[in-house]
Structure formats: structure tokens, C-alpha cells
Design a protein that fits this description.
Number of helices: 24
Structural class: alpha+beta
CATH superfamily of the largest domain: DNA ligase/mRNA capping enzyme
CATH architecture of the largest domain: 2-Layer Sandwich
Low-confidence stretches: 1-6, 70-74, 624-630
Helix content: 25-40%
CATH topology of the largest domain: D-amino Acid Aminotransferase, Chain A, domain 1
Largest sheet: 5 strands, mixed
Radius of gyration: 29 Å
Number of strands: 23
CATH class of the largest domain: Alpha Beta
Strand content: 15-25%
Mean pLDDT: 84
Shape: globular
Length: about 700
């Protein structure tokens, strides 16, 4: 009995020790951006903790790192009444507005001295984190300010949010009988994550998010916390309440307390003695905001002294002691000339606005997304309308508003097509979806888009297979005589009917082009050398491997990450083909929607024929036995930061190369950064790297470091 008690005590101690160690590493990695161990070491700690908790499930606590992601979707969200109302801020749009606000504050303060705190206005959504006995008890959305929704399971997935407050060794007001700590912050989506999500959604022909704020808000209201975990939300905290009341004499002290107790605070906060210093801060960040990895739309200015805040009070909606200074919006107005309808590889019909060219955020814009028929109806767009367009997060501009005041009466309605603009098949709109689709799997447009996706650099990597060539390969061919001349009819006109079938009628036909080299050479702008280069690329793509193949096949909801997970889990496509929805759903990061989509794809006979044709063509369908060898992990434990535009590779490609070799890519520069990979127009990250004396490399130097 004593022996068992000793063993139990030992397990309890080890579990507690592991939890503290892992939470400490989470803080260093996600908050301080200064990791002290390699990913493989961290994974070993997590694995050991999971094993121990499996042995002793009675010891699992809400603050355990293993509880960050729930295993099942929630049924809905409960309401929660905020103990202290979460007020919104009044906005100012000019220097004059800001000076007028400062003058009102001075008048209301009646001679009491105060200074200011200026913080970047993060474009996200407000959240309340409530801790009881050091442990995260609830995460609540702002809602209407009085009532929010409890989204605790989703909040737990955000790695920069501590599950347990770091109390430290020095006594403070938290340890002096405080029962409840409330920390408020802004949840946001980093730009690089937003770009990845939108790219993946576009590739899967799902509606893209208009901006990072909408993406973050939509993510936080997901009922399945596993989806939230995949999206890598982040947070900056900005307010501290102890038992429902302000904790310190100044706001700046509260920020420092949160920072020292494990919360992520924006590093660019600044205490300003005068309103002139505030204005300088606003001007500085209006110029520097492009160098950040998250969207800001202004500056939040607060009176620093809590006693003065209490004296000034609040209106029904906003505090008098704080204001948001909004940067000029990145919008432009222009005329909408027409709408064209693009057909994607899954048949999705996407309306695209044709615009009078206009300069926006440094680039000339002539096209903008209208997303789908529902969005067109919501906006109420008409031909020749004047509209506002907005660009955010480096994605295609969006039409965000119709300027109805500028209508002349000559505008005309758009009729969303009822037939595919390419193959004339009747369109369908599946129940529960916003997207209208062409159901014809043989639609030439779907084939063309599928080929472009299949050959993309992140898929099978067939360079040279661009839009113009794909158009020729998939179009019916005009008959020609042995001399290569078009066969005339009896009137001397070229014969176009009956045409020859296209050179490529399916993905598998790419691997038959070697037998049709002469016809390939005869295509426009395609000589012998270009044809041979293309054929070499196609030949090499047979060895791309299972993950790239799965991504290239264009299965709905299967992006790069999901394709890699499936390839690693199943090892070959035969095993994946036999997997049930239930088996797929049990895989970490594969939800029920993705599982159903995968099963549906493999249940279609035409897709099985395609796989058989690709296999017969020698395309590798296993993770083992490919020509891609395991690369040495020469960057193990090294931290890279990428900035600027690289000459030949995208940031995603550079990131993949680095991570495949054991490195980690961070979004911000710190003293722990080992290499800064800089391209053209690097921005403020390069300035920071130079200040810290870090090693700065270009693309060629990265390739040299990676070796052959």
C-alpha cells in the first residue's frame, strides 16, 4: 500500500513538473518569441505528459497543456453577463479631433495632472479572460458590451493565452486575497496566417475572408475548437481587473503587471507626457504599420492615471478618458463597369468586378472580388455603379460598398447566370452553401483550373505549364495536313469541325505528352527546347510524392497541411482510399467536414479511374520509395525571420525549406533570431535586425547554407 502511494505521489509530482515546464516553454515561444528548446524536445515533453495523464485521468486539470484543444464540437455558446461593461471607444479621424478630445479631458480633469498611454489599435475582436484561483476559468466575447458568449474552449487553443497565471516569487496584489483576475485583450489573426488561410480557402474554392478581423471573429465563433486551433489566432492584452476593479494607480503599471505574469502585451506601447508626443506616435505608426505582421487601423490613446479615468467616467457607450485615432482607410472609389463569372476547378462560379482602373495601396486595381451571388445581392451592385473597394492582407481587393448617392439612373441590374458560362450546363447551389457551382465534371474550365492547380509549385511542381499553354492543351485541335497546314473546306475556309480531341483531357494525359512531342512543338510559342523542358518537368513530377499528389488532386477542403497529414498517416493512397469517414475524423486536425469530403471524392468512379491512370503512368502514390530523400536537419533549433520579396521563391517556399531542415520561422525579430532572410523592400524588420547586429542573409546565401 505504501509502495503504491509512493508511486502515485511520484506521478503527481512528475505531471505537475511537466505542466510547469511546458507552460514555461509556451510562454517563451508564443509570448516572448525566445524559445530555449527545439521542437522535438518540446514534443517529447508533451508526449510524456499525455502518457501520464492517460494513466491517471483523475489528475487531468483544466490548465493542463494537453487540454488546449477539445475533442468534440460544442453544441452552442452560453451567454455571460460582464461584471464590468466592455465599452467601445469613440473614434477620431484627424489631428483636430484628437486635440479636441485632449482639451475636453483637461477641462474635465479640473487641473489634475495626467499623462497618456498610446497603444496600437489591433484590428481584431475583444475578449475577456477570467481567472479563478490562478486558472483560466472562462473566455468571453465582448458581445454587446453587457453580454457576451462563453468561448472558453476556443480561447484555450490560443497558445499565447496562459492557462495558469505566472505568479512569480514576489508578493503583489494578486496574491493578497484576490479571487478573480480578469484580463481583456484583442484576439487577432497574424497577416501571414490570414494569407495562408485565404489561399487555402481560394484553392478549395471556398469564400475567402474579407480581412483578418472578419477571419478572427468568424474563427472565434466556431463550434469545433479543432478548427480554431488550426488557425493560429494570437492576442495582445490591454486591461487588467482584480475582483472587478482597476488594479493599479496607472494603466501603464497594469500593462507591466500583465507582461510580468505571462500575458502577451503589445511591445510598441508608449507612455507619452503630452498630446504632442501622442501625435508623433500616431504619425510614426501610420508610416510603419506595413512592417507589422498584423493589421492595425489606428492608435488607442488613454489617460494613464486611473483616478483621472474614474473622475472622467463614461457615456452610455464609451469612456471619456480614451479614444481611438483611426488611420486613413485603405479604400478607393471607382466605377464598376461589368461583372465576369469565373469557373473554378470544383465548378464554383465566382463573380469578379471589372473596374475603372484606380490606384489603391500603391498598386493599380482593375478587378475586385464579389465572392458569390449572395454577396452581390447584399451589396446591391449594378452596372456603372460607383463603389468603394478595399485591400487588406495582400489578397485580391474586395468591393465593400455601393455609393448609392452617386447613382444617375442609368445603372442596370446584373443577372447572375443560371448556366455555366463555359459549358452551358445548368448551375446548382447546394443546400447550405453560398457558392453556385457548375456540376459538369467534364467542363473545360474545370479541367483547365484543375491542371493549373495540379502543376502548381506547391503541388506537382510542373514549371512552364501556365494559363496560355493549358488553354491550348485543353482546346479541341484544328485539323492540319501533313505539311502542318490547316485543311481547307471546299470554299477554302479552315475546317474546324469535326475537331480533333484536345491533347489533354484529364490530369493523367499530361504523362502521355511525351508520345505527342511533335504536336506539342506545333503549339503557339512552343519550340523544341521549350517542349523538352516541359516534358522533363512532367517526368520529374512522377516522383513528387504522396503529399504533393493529394494536394494536387484538388480534393475539396484538402490543402497543403491536410494533404501532408494524410500522407504521413496512411503512407500510401490505397490505404487512404479504404478509410471510412469515422477513421478519417479521428485523425488529429481532420474534422468531419474534411473527412466527408475526402470520402466523397474517393467514392466517385471517375476519380478512381484517374488514380488508376496516374498509377499506370508511374506517378508515385506512397510516402516511401519516392525520389525525395530525407534532408539533413541542419537548421535544428535555429530561428529565421523573413522580410521583403525574394527573387525566385515565395515566402511559403522559403519557410518550407527552412522547416524541413529543422528551423523555425518567426514573425518578429528579437535577440534570439539567428538569421534574417531579406529580399527587396524589407521594411522595419531589417532595421531592427541591424540594430541588434543579427546575421542577415539573402536567398542565394540561404541556398548555399542548405547545400546541394
Amino acid at each position: 500500500m505504501a509502495k503504491n502511494s509512493k508511486k502515485t505521489g511520484s506521478i503527481e509530482k512528475e505531471i505537475e513538473s511537466l505542466r510547469r515546464e511546458i507552460l514555461d516553454h509556451d510562454h517563451r515561444y508564443y509570448v516572448l518569441n525566445e524559445p530555449t528548446i527545439a521542437d522535438v524536445e518540446y514534443d517529447a515533453l508533451m508526449k510524456r505528459l499525455s502518457e501520464l495523464e492517460s494513466e491517471r485521468p483523475d489528475l487531468i486539470t483544466p490548465d493542463s497543456p494537453t487540454q488546449r484543444v477539445s475533442g468534440a464540437p460544442a453544441a452552442g455558446f452560453e451567454e455571460y453577463v460582464h461584471k464590468r461593461v466592455m465599452l467601445s471607444l469613440d473614434n477620431s479621424y484627424s489631428v483636430e479631433d484628437l486635440l479636441e478630445w485632449a482639451g475636453r479631458c483637461e477641462k474635465l480633469a479640473a487641473g489634475r495632472a495626467f499623462d497618456y498611454v498610446a497603444e496600437l489599435k489591433i484590428d481584431g475582436l475583444s475578449i475577456s479572460l477570467i481567472y479563478e484561483d490562478y486558472i483560466l476559468a472562462r473566455g468571453v466575447t465582448r458581445g454587446d458590451g453587457n453580454r457576451g458568449e462563453i468561448v472558453t474552449q476556443n480561447v484555450r487553443t490560443i497558445r499565447s493565452i496562459p492557462l495558469r497565471i505566472r505568479t512569480g516569487s514576489k508578493p503583489d496584489r494578486f496574491t493578497a486575497g484576490v479571487k478573480e483576475v480578469e484580463v481583456r485583450g484583442e484576439v487577432f489573426l497574424p497577416n501571414e496566417v490570414f494569407a495562408r488561410i485565404n489561399r487555402e480557402r481560394a484553392e478549395q474554392e471556398m469564400q475567402t475572408f474579407a480581412n483578418p478581423r472578419n477571419a478572427a471573429a468568424g474563427t472565434m465563433r466556431q463550434l469545433d475548437s479543432r478548427i480554431v486551433a488550426e488557425r493560429n489566432l494570437d492576442i495582445f492584452c490591454y486591461q487588467l481587473l482584480l475582483d472587478g476593479a482597476p488594479a493599479y494607480e496607472t494603466h501603464f503599471e497594469a500593462l507591466e503587471w500583465m507582461s510580468s505574469h505571462g500575458f502577451k502585451i503589445n511591445p510598441h506601447r508608449r507612455r507619452c507626457r503630452t498630446i504632442d508626443e501622442v501625435l508623433e506616435y500616431c504619425r510614426e505608426w501610420d508610416e510603419r504599420r506595413d512592417g507589422l505582421n498584423y493589421e492595425i487601423d489606428g492608435v488607442v490613446v488613454k489617460i494613464n492615471q486611473i483616478s483621472v479615468q474614474e473622475e472622467l467616467g463614461a457615456t452610455a457607450k464609451s469612456p471619456r478618458w480614451a479614444i481611438a485615432y483611426k488611420f486613413p482607410a485603405r479604400q478607393a472609389s471607382t466605377q464598376l463597369l461589368d461583372v465576369i463569372y469565373q469557373v473554378g476547378r470544383t465548378g464554383a462560379i465566382t463573380p469578379v468586378a471589372v473596374l475603372e482602373p484606380v490606384l489603391l495601396a500603391g498598386t493599380t486595381v482593375s478587378r475586385a472580388s464579389l465572392h458569390n451571388a449572395d454577396e452581390m445581392a447584399r451589396l446591391g451592385v449594378k452596372r456603372n455603379d460607383w463603389v468603394f473597394i478595399e485591400k487588406s492582407g495582400e489578397i485580391i481587393p474586395q468591393v465593400v460598398k455601393v455609393i448609392t448617392e452617386r447613382r444617375s439612373g442609368e445603372e442596370t441590374d446584373f443577372d447572375f447566370p443560371v448556366r455555366c458560362p463555359v459549358c452551358q450546363t445548368s448551375l446548382v447551389k447546394p443546400e447550405g452553401e453560398a457558392v453556385t457551382r457548375c456540376p459538369n465534371a467534364d467542363c473545360p474550365a474545370r479541367l483547365r483550373e484543375g491542371l493549373l492547380h495540379f502543376s502548381a509549385r506547391r503541388a506537382m511542381r510542373i514549371d512552364g505549364l501556365g494559363e496560355a499553354l493549358v488553354e491550348q492543351l485543353t482546346s479541341p485541335r484544328i485539323k492540319k495536313n501533313q505539311k502542318g497546314e490547316t485543311v481547307p473546306d471546299e470554299n477554302g475556309a479552315p475546317i474546324t469541325l469535326p475537331p480533333l480531341p484536345p491533347l489533354v483531357a484529364s490530369l493523367a494525359d499530361l504523362y502521355k505528352l511525351k508520345e505527342l512531342r511533335d504536336e506539342l512543338i506545333a503549339l503557339d510559342r512552343m519550340g523544341g527546347k521549350s517542349a523538352d523542358n516541359l516534358l522533363d518537368q512532367i517526368e520529374a513530377s512522377r516522383q513528387a510524392g504522396l503529399a504533393r499528389l493529394l494536394y494536387g488532386l484538388g480534393i475539396r477542403h484538402v490543402g497543403e497541411r491536410t494533404a501532408s497529414i494524410l500522407a504521413n498517416h496512411f503512407g500510401d493512397i490505397g490505404r487512404l482510399r479504404e478509410a471510412s469517414v469515422d477513421e478519417l475524423s479521428r485523425i488529429h486536425e481532420i474534422g468531419s467536414i474534411v473527412a466527408s469530403s475526402i470520402r466523397e471524392w474517393f467514392d466517385q468512379p471517375r476519380n478512381i479511374r484517374l488514380l488508376e491512370d496516374l498509377s499506370a503512368a508511374g506517378v508515385i502514390m506512397k510516402t516511401s520509395g519516392t525520389a525525395t530523400e530525407e534532408v539533413p536537419r541542419i537548421f535544428e533549433g535555429k530561428i529565421f525571420v523573413l522580410t521583403g520579396t525574394l527573387p525566385t521563391m515565395s515566402r511559403d517556399e522559403a519557410k518550407s525549406y527552412i522547416e524541413a531542415r529543422g528551423g523555425r520561422v518567426s514573425s518578429s525579430v528579437s535577440k534570439k533570431t539567428d538569421f534574417v532572410l531579406a529580399g527587396s523592400d524589407p521594411g522595419s524588420k531589417l532595421d531592427r535586425a541591424l540594430e541588434l547586429g543579427l546575421t542577415i542573409i539573402n536567398e542565394n546565401e540561404l541556398l548555399t547554407l542548405m547545400g546541394p
